[in-house]
Design brief:
Helix content is 19%, strand content 38%. The protein has two helices and seven strands; from the N terminus they run H-E-E-E-E-E-H-E-E. A five-stranded mixed beta sheet has the order 1-2-5-7-6. The protein has a single domain, classed as 2-Layer Sandwich (STM4215-like). It has 127 residues and is α+β, with helices and mostly antiparallel strands.
Length: 127
Amino acid sequence: MSLEADLFSALKSLVGNRMSPDTFPQPPAVPVWPAIRYTFVSNVPFVDLLGDGDDETSEPHVQLDVVATSFSAVRSLRLQVMAAMRTFAPPAILQNTTSEYDSETKTYREIMEYSFFGSSDSGNSPP
């Protein structure tokens, strides 16, 4: 599977399949919360004397925006996302988190930045 499919598979049940790449539903659609947005921020190739190993050995960086309508709900969902992300092999490494309140949508947001370190070991692929 692709990393995008693996992310969706690992996290969709936490938010009733409300996962979106790059953006949440925009008007006239009305977003339903909680939801998760994922964005591929960068993908750093691993280069050695034999070249690079394409996506299998690259280091993708993904931002997850976890959104809910209350502070307690978003904090609980954040912990669930962190637990799900620990199931990846090779592991997803949490690099940074930021919390914010969006007064326009009246939602709480946890912004989580993850790095995935590829492996040339074919037995170590994400779930």
